[in-house]
Design brief:
There is one protein chain. Helices cover 35% and strands 8% of the residues. By secondary structure, the protein is mainly α. The longest helix is centred in the middle third of the chain and has 17 residues. The protein is globular. It starts with 9 loop residues before the first helix and ends in a 51-residue tail after the last helix. One of its GO terms (cellular component) is plasma membrane. GO terms for molecular function: Wnt receptor activity; Wnt-protein binding. Keywords: Developmental protein, Disulfide bond.
């Protein structure tokens, strides 16, 4: 379950590109099982199914913040190296926006952590494998 109610599929066309959604989410499920970063599944889900935010007449998808990506990469890259792999190029953190405290409008998504609680997010239940072109 995602921590937001509205999503958009815009990201699938831009970041996930030609990767099958099922493979993309299985990759993050694998990382989650490796316990390399507490919110790695949420990071993957927020790319595949970005939060849709309405700002008056305008709606837009919030992709993960650069700091969210960097934290996920920092936690998981050492684990990936142990299996002779690396952080995927299509997930380079520089493509994500920086969070700015002075912005009145939200520009990116990051997990809201509640003190003392550990959350797990699953976003791939009952998806049918499809190829996106």
């Amino acid at each position: 379950m995602l921590p937001y109610n509205h999503t958009t599929l815009t990201s699938i066309l831009s970041i996930v590109k030609r990767i099958e959604l099922e493979k993309f989410l299985k990759f993050f499920s694998y990382l989650s099982r490796l316990s390399c970063y507490q919110h790695v599944m949420l990071f993957g889900c927020s790319i595949a199914f970005p939060e849709c935010v309405s700002d008056g007449d305008e709606s837009y998808g919030l992709l993960p913040c650069r700091s969210f990506c960097e934290t996920a990469k920092e936690g998981c890259e050492p684990v990936l190296r142990m299996v002779n792999s690396s952080w995927p190029e299509f997930l380079k953190c520089s493509q994500f926006r920086n969070h700015s405290e002075s912005d009145l409008r939200r520009v990116c998504f990051s997990p809201k952590q509640e003190r003392g609680k550990q959350c797990r997010f699953l976003c791939f239940i009952s998806l049918q494998p499809k190829k996106f072109r």
